[in-house]
DNA sequence: GATGCCACGGTCGAGGTTGTCCATTCGATC
DNA sequence: GATCGAATGGACAACCTCGACCGTGGCATC
């Protein structure tokens, strides 16, 4: 993981369909050297996958909320992970400092779908209550990884 | 935007480097028909770009926080966008319902870098104060788009 | 029903890209 | 300086891309 790798990753982040030759031209390697490095980065798990960014307003998943999760007693992160991984509307979540135990970013196709997903989070035995902030307008969505 | 387009998008989400021929084999089109549709989807802005998912622990950007933004008076979303787009550590942000004006998801290489980025958000003239929740452990990170 | 138009798909071929081979270079070690 | 390993660049066949061209079907107009 040297500067060449980082350069390749930066270029692939901008355009995952760039040819190895073009990438090599930018970082100063031949196409075959770039391919070897990319293959290694994928094998090592540094590059997790090649994907596309889709306009969220088009694919319909444009109803979002940030939800603070408050649990009863102490809940292990593993336990929270088990609860949340069963709800596909959860885009992003982490345990946090502060009064809430976790913050959960949810995305659904509609307010009812969001409400339904929220309900599935709330019925988990350890969840005491939640506090939601519905997203009114999306300002930034840097889709880094 | 029909079922063929949706199928192509799903396949590209899984592997943005799949060849047009392979995609066509899965959705039942020729390679050129797939290319035409992909080109159209890109031109129409449905597909915003081709990118890679990078292990966040490897690229070093693994210090995160959710920040509630409280503004003085009423602030237009455009104004917030202008403020936040100048801070690259802002991954995701939206105006929200509730007492805060916006929620901002930030990611940096270290706590000092996060603090610095937060400071750059706070010095904006309209920002009254912020309330941060530092992410302790990342639970979910579905990197859909 | 005939006509023109348009959107869409398939086929084809030139040119570019990928993936694999091998010789070479570079640096470290003995 | 000899040897080894890791990485590179170049060569080449197989594959893919991408534009040009043509055929088909839907649809409105005459």
UniProtKB/TrEMBL annotation, chains A, B:
Which Gene3D superfamilies has this protein been placed in?
A: 3.30.70.920, Winged helix-like DNA-binding domain superfamily/Winged helix DNA-binding domain
Gene Ontology CC terms, in alphabetical order: cytosol
One GO molecular-function entry: sequence-specific DNA binding
Instruction: Indicate yes or no for the key word NADP.
Output: no
- This one is known as Lrp/AsnC family transcriptional regulator
What Pfam families does the record point to?
Answer: AsnC_trans_reg, HTH_AsnC-type
Q: Which keywords annotate this record?
A: DNA-binding, Transcription, Transcription regulation
Q: Which organism is it from?
A: Labedella populi
**Keyword Transcription regulation among UniProt keywords:** yes
SMART domains per UniProt: HTH_ASNC
């Amino acid at each position: 993981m040297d500067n060449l790798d980082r350069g390749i990753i930066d270029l692939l982040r901008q355009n995952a369909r760039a040819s190895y030759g073009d990438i090599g031209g930018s970082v100063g390697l031949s196409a075959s050297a770039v391919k070897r490095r990319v293959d290694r980065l994928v094998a090592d798990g540094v590059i997790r996958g090649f994907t596309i960014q889709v306009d969220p307003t088009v694919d319909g998943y444009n109803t979002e909320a940030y939800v603070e999760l408050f649990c009863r007693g102490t809940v292990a992160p593993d336990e929270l992970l088990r609860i949340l991984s069963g709800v596909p509307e959860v885009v992003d979540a982490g345990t946090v400092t502060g009064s809430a135990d976790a913050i959960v970013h949810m995305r659904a196709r509609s307010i009812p779908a969001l409400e339904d997903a929220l309900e599935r989070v709330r019925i988990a035995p350890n969840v005491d209550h939640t506090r939601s902030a519905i997203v009114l307008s999306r300002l930034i969505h840097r889709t880094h990884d």
